Amino acid sequence: MTGEVFVDTNILVYSRDETEPTKHAKARAWIAHLWSTRRGRLSTQVLQEFYVTVTEKLDPGLDRESARQDVRSFVTWRPVTVDASVLEAAWRVQDRYRLSWWDSLIVGAAEIAGCAYLLTEDLQTHQELGEVRVVDPFRVSPDTL
């Protein structure tokens, strides 16, 4: 499998959340793989959700500066900004696949970014959403890409 990989918020969160050791290890392996292959993509929505989750919802959470450092490092992944084109794509996804609005925004951003894969546990693995294929990082290992 080749192509860029769009990473959903939950994968970034699990890479920092040690309360679920199995998911933590798998998420870290995926993130490391995407750093080394330079195939990771995400959106400003994902970065915002990540920051709020790790600083306000995790127990124990990250301190703000550590979370900000993470966000700054992921900016090198060229985050897709949620703009009019992403909204239009999300509306098409929502109407065609009947996904929630937030999932539709993620899929729409992945589509706009030209990603072949969406790394998430929130949708059905191997599901094809237009040109984007869903990959559950807790069922599929990075070396399969």
Describe the structure.
By secondary structure, the chain is of the alpha/beta class. It has a single domain (5-140), classed as 5'-nuclease (Rossmann fold), CATH 3.40.50. It is built from six helices and five strands. The chain has a five-stranded mixed sheet with strand order 2-1-3-5-4. A hairpin with a 2-residue loop joins strand 4 (128-129) and strand 5 (132-135). Helix 1 (9-16) runs parallel beside helix 3 (44-57) and helix 5 (84-97) packs across helix 6 (101-112). The longest helix is centred in the first third of the chain and has 17 residues, at 21-37. The protein is globular and about 40 Å long. The protein starts with a strand and ends in a 10-residue tail after the last strand. The relative contact order is 0.20. The model has no long low-confidence stretch (mean pLDDT 96).
Key attributes of the depicted protein:
alpha/beta, Rossmann fold, 5-stranded mixed beta sheet, 10% strand
Write the layout of secondary structure elements.
Layout (H helix, E strand, L loop, with lengths): L4 E3 L1 H8 L4 H17 L2 E2 L2 H14 L6 H11 L9 H14 L3 H12 L4 E3 L8 E2 L2 E4 L10
Parallel strand pairs: 1-2, 1-3, 3-5
Antiparallel strand pairs: 4-5
Spans of at least 5 consecutive residues whose pLDDT stays below 50 are none
Please report the distance between the alpha carbons of the first and last residues: 5 Å
Rounded mean pLDDT score: 96
CATH topology, by name, is Rossmann fold
Structural class: alpha/beta
Q: How large a portion of the residues is in β-strands, by DSSP E?
A: 5-15%
Q: Helix tally?
A: 6
Count of distinct strands:
5
**How many whole angstroms does the radius of gyration measure?**
14 Å
CATH class: Alpha Beta
For the largest beta-sheet, the strand count, sense and barrel status come to:
5 strands, mixed
Question: CATH homologous superfamily name?
Answer: 5'-nuclease
- With strands numbered from the N-terminus, the spatial order across the biggest sheet is 2-1-3-5-4
* Fraction of residues in H or I helices: 40-55%
- Topology as a string of helices (H) and strands (E): EHHEHHHHEEE
Can you name the CATH architecture?
3-Layer(aba) Sandwich
Q: What is the number of independent domains?
A: 1
Shape category: globular
